[in-house]
Design goal:
Number of helices: 18
Distance between the termini: 78 Å
Number of strands: 15
Structural class: alpha/beta
Mean pLDDT: 85
Strand content: 15-25%
Radius of gyration: 25 Å
Helix content: 40-55%
Bound molecules: ligand C2E, magnesium ion
Low-confidence stretches: 464-485
Shape: elongated
Largest sheet: 8 strands, mixed, barrel
Length: about 475
Amino acid sequence: MSHPTLRADGSDPQQETARLAALASTGILDTPPEASYDAITRLVAESFHADWVGISFADEGRIWVKSFWGQPMRELPRKNSIFDLVLAQDGPVVIPDISKLPELNGHLLSHKILGASFFAGVPVRSFDGKILGLLVIYCREPRLELTTEELRVLEGMANMVSNELELRRLHNKISGQKKVRRANSKTEANHSWPCKADLRRALDLHQFVLYYQPEVELSTRRIIGLEALIRWEHPERGLIAPKDFIPLAEQNGLILPIGDWVLDEVCSQIQRWCSEDLNNSSLKVCVNLSARQFSRNGLTDHIHALLLRSGISSRQLGLEMTESSLIPNLNTAKEVLGSLRKLGVSLLMDDFGTGYSSLSNLHSFPFDVLKIDGSFVSRMNDGDQPLQIVRTIIELARVLGMDVVAEGIETCDQYRVLRQLGCRFGQGYLFARPMRAQAVNCLLQLPGRVLPNPDGSSEQREEPKDFAAGSGSNIRSTVSLQAKS
Ligand code: C2E
Ligand code: MG
Ligand code: MG
């Protein structure tokens, strides 16, 4: 068997599209973990004395582990995975001792996570031969090559999974799910641009880009973090805002691969900024998550794997979500947020004040930061009521021990009032618009990362402090403004 190599960019796009279609027709990605496969993983683990066995399926960006034996693992990024090796090889891959393959050693993700030396992966194929997934064995210690008989046993087990998938596919077809899907796609085709196929093409052609908007400490205007905001660079239509394609991606499920790409890209960018200047390691870069992205437990594993791969600290990553994205599945949301918190990433509640703003939810979710929606900030100077709302949110955050970021600060007046209210952090066009990473580089090189004063005056500044998640010590006084207003 020739030595497998990790390829920078998956497979032939056409073959990949056909493979993804075959995978979608089985419906396997939409199911929870498959208890029916546990008998297979267990049997394989026992017969091969393996430390870890898994049955998983791969979409464009992610490995979905449907059954495992050994250390719990639900999802992994596809990049640098053994799945891509098997796909490139179009057949089984056995690596008796990874330390003897310097081109793979240290690069293969599962090697990093499971600390394995021996790997054997056999494809799980569709009936027409497309590789949909993998049955894989890991052992901590190196081993001999598998014998022909052993490989045959392993392939037999993978075939059992293939048979079950084919039954599932036929069942889907008969129960008419396909018809519904066709009807949906027909409606989509009649709808205005973009449709699902446009989004998929954009993903394949790498047309999504990230802009970054600085978040500052209001008292010093020091950049303490950045929010990553997606845009679509369309060759004919120009730059397209997220509101024009994210809701569609949320409906049709493409938000998962798109969201994975965002997380992956952000982790790599943080790593680049840190390697350019170590001081940048105090920056926190925040990513917006949609509801579908954390309706599964695997999100934490996925993020953990990305952190390991990029070598960045969990303190450098923040995840923003709106309250309404948590509501559809409160219990799962609570569980996932708890495990993300354990991992050490910051959790920010976005657009606070616009959703249900249920206090009991806020209490029971482990958020570090509340982001006050820009609509309140923009109306703050319109009268007592909006001002009172902002004041109450800041006070609420103080009581709950959270930090506050005010969004959408556009005027010097808003900036002044927010500081008087004791709001510690903010972002808005007044300081900086969202921009490409290269433009951010210039701002990061400013002395102390401090942005110029927007009203042009030079004033006494306080010493810059970094984002201390959940410190709750942010409110100095809300009294001064109350006296003025
Ligand atoms: P958001 O997370 O609340 O992001 C803040 C939005 O306010 C951004 O709009 C930003 O450009 C805009 N903004 C910032 N400062 C100001 C200001 O001073 N004035 C005004 N008028 N607007 C300001 P954008 O980039 O169009 O994003 C809109 C929403 O799209 C985001 O709201 C977020 O919910 C969603 N979004 C953006 N990127 C992603 C992503 O990668 N994944 C997901 N799931 N959603 C995303
Ligand atoms: Mg946001
Ligand atoms: Mg927001």
